[in-house]
Every structure is written in C-alpha cells, then in structure tokens.
C-alpha cells in the first residue's frame, strides 16, 4: 500500500521476510501512477508472486479516474506477469470477456464483492457466489462486515461448500476469526497487514501475528479451535500462551480472540465438535454460567467461570481456574516472604485478605482465600455487591473509599481485581500509597501493564508484589489441562 514504487518494493521485501506467499499490490495507493513503467518494475522486481488490485472509490478504494484506464492497467498487469488480478463484480463480466483467450497459463482472475454494511443471509451470499461464478471468475472473493461474531459462520459455510476456489473475509474486529480460520474452512487465501498501522480493511490481522501468534501454517480442516470470549478482548495475551503450548506438544489446535456480544448466541452458533471450548473474561464470566450444561462445584460456589470445555457429547462444562491461579501465586509469594518451603498448610491461613472488587475475579479471590483459611474483607464501589460476596465467604464488606483508612492490623494481604490502573489509565491506582504500608503482600490481577502503579508503589513501601501475569499463566495452565486432558 506504499504511495511510491520504491516504497512498495521495500514493503514487498518485508512481506517476503515475514513469510508471505503472495503480495497484493494496491495500485490505487500510488500517488503518481504511470502504468507501463511502474507495473513493469513492480511485477518484475517483486520477490513474490503478485496480486494486482486497482480499487475504485465506489468499492472502497482510492481510484477516482476513468474506468477504461483502470481496466487497461489491470490487463497490462496480466501481460507483464502478475499471478492474479482482483476485479470487482460490477465490471467483471466485461473485463473477463476482454481477456478471453489471452490469459497466460498460470494467471487467475479474482472477482470480488465487498459489503461494507453487514453480512447477508446464507441464501443471499449463495446467490452472490453464483453471480460471481457466472462472470467467469477463477476465484470468488466475498468480503462482508461483521455486526456480530456469529456472522463469520455464514462465510465459513460458503467456503466449505463452494465448487470453485473462494476467499471469504468478514471485516471488523468481530470478524477476526474469518481471516484466521480460512485454511480450516477451505479458503483459497487470507490477507495479513505488513504492520498494525497499515491494514487494508478493518479488523485485518498482521501477517506476523497470523504466522507467529496464531500458527496459521499449522491450521488444517481437522484443526480444533479454542479461544477467549470477552468484550473487549483484543488485549488478551491468552492466544500467545495457548498457541505456543499447542505447538510445542504438537496438538492440532488453534486459540483465537473472540469478541462476543451475546454469549448464548455465540455458543448456539459455534456448536460443532471441532469447537473445543473457550476461556471467558469480562464481562461474560457470570452470564456464561446460564449457558452451561454442567458447572464444576467450585465454580458454582464462586458464581463465576473462566473456562468452558465442550465434551465429546457436545455438552458444555464450566470451570473456574482463576482462583487456583491467583491463590497459588499469592501463597508462593507469602512462602518466599516467610522463607517457608511449600508444605501442606497454606500461608494464607489466618491472614487478613482484603479483596478489591466483587466481580468474577473478586469472587474467585474471596472464595479461594476463604477456602485456604484467610479472613476475607471485600471492598467494592457499591456496598451491596461487597456485602453479597462477603456474606457468602463469611467475611466483612466495605466500600473502596473505606480501604484507605482500614488497618486493624499489620501484615495484611491485598488483592486488586478492579480495572483501576489498567491500560490506558495507567496512572490510576485503587488505593493511595500511604495505605500500602500495612500490607506484607500486594497482588494485582491486571496484567496490561504488567507493572501497575499499585504494584510499583507497593514495592516502594516494602511489600512483596505478585504480578497479574502470574495468575494469568497459572490459571491458563489449569485451563490447558482441562482443554486437552493432558497432565500438567
């Protein structure tokens, strides 16, 4: 998408280094395009096969000039050795007729249709594919817009059932999985951006993420898929953990980001055996409970889940691994502080544990702490929710404001599960620095950023700190065992 030929050549070399197979050349991005001269250089000097696109404004591109000149440039690209050209459905009939009998042997025409408003019904997409095929297309390309993550299924169905090579893409953040799961559903190719700031469509992943984060080359029709449901969800580091784990032991699976609005609709739609389950984050930890067939007894008591597995019989079983991850990290921090070796009794026993927040993670910490014999205090913005949780674990309740002046004893343990201090509000903290001196250990469930203001200030007051990444890795490890059935 460079604005000069030189810039494009640099980008082409970068695409090859990253590991792309083909490079798409967007002629409509060039500032002063001189067809004969520029195409000759771009196609002949490209280190990869080229797909040439000259997208007009009426189909979401930048070209506003004469239509005949635009098509002349695409024909010229074909003659000069491009492997593919992309032509819009509206003009495909005429274009394909004009090159009839003149196509080089390995040259293919992609006929594309872009819908910037929504993803139509199965029937409407089917009719669209038939129209594209009727133009003489070698490859069908359909790009729609995701209003919900379940829209992707309609594109997957089309790709699986299509008689000719098909590229199916759903744009927007809710459509991300359509770019990633393309090889699973028989898609001809997928697109990756050279860098995050240079996407050619909303929601497009980078080529580097496709290859390194999601292990795109390993995805096949029989690959199982997992993911994390949340809203927002793009910040989650879970795909990094799980995809690396799957790859290292040779499990044929991929783990994705699922931006989900309606949890029930999501599970009703993605219900095939090759969908193995999900992790679950804010704000779905409690709502998802209602969609489950079975809930692990511990998760039921906590009233929040973060791990959902689909059993071979199709039933959804839910677990809570957050409490294991967080509590074990805190226990290890306390053992380190006291120089105690891991033993049978928990170093949390008898400790005063102050939990900030009464959401899903707060429930996990409060319940887990109580189970280990800690005396639990729950602080929340609204006192009603704090009381509700404190009553369940036999603890005390207070508001977040009251925490600043709460220190009935020294050497307490603090666990923050609120989002105060999370990116982008990294200068915020849920509790003033002077109040931290009464705590021997401070844990923050936030892991973006890793070193929150709360943890920095706790360290300065001499407390042992436990990072949110510790909980993330440990709870992820428990989920991994649940997903795969493999021992730790």
In short:
The chain is of the alpha/beta class and 488 residues long. It contains 16 helices and 18 strands.
Report on this model:
The chain is of the alpha/beta class and 488 residues long. Helix content is 35%, strand content 19%. The chain is built from 16 helices and 18 strands. The chain has helices at residues 5-18, 35-45, 67-79, 89-98, 122-134, 152-161, 176-180, 207-213, 238-249, 263-269, 297-302, 322-338, 360-371, 383-392, 453-460, 468-484, and strands at 23-26, 50-53, 84-88, 108-114, 139-145, 166-171, 224-230, 253-259, 275-280, 294-295, 307-310, 316-319, 352-356, 375-380, 396-399, 412-416, 439-444, 464-466. A 6-stranded parallel sheet has the order 1-2-3-4-5-6. Strands 8-7-9-11-12-10 form a 6-stranded mixed sheet. It has a 6-stranded parallel sheet with strand order 15-14-13-16-17-18, with helices on both faces. Helix 5 (122-134) packs across helix 6 and helix 12 packs across helix 13 (360-371). The longest helix has 17 residues, at 322-338. Residues 228-308 form the Shikimate dehydrogenase substrate binding N-terminal domain. GO terms for molecular function: 3-dehydroquinate dehydratase activity; shikimate 3-dehydrogenase (NADP+) activity. Residues 348-419 form the Quinate/shikimate 5-dehydrogenase/glutamyl-tRNA reductase domain. InterPro entries: Aldolase_TIM (IPR013785), Aminoacid_DH-like_N_sf (IPR046346), DHquinase_I (IPR001381), NAD(P)-bd_dom_sf (IPR036291), Shikimate_DH-bd_N (IPR013708), Shikimate_DH_fam (IPR022893), Shikm_DH/Glu-tRNA_Rdtase (IPR006151). This is Shikimate dehydrogenase (NADP(+)).
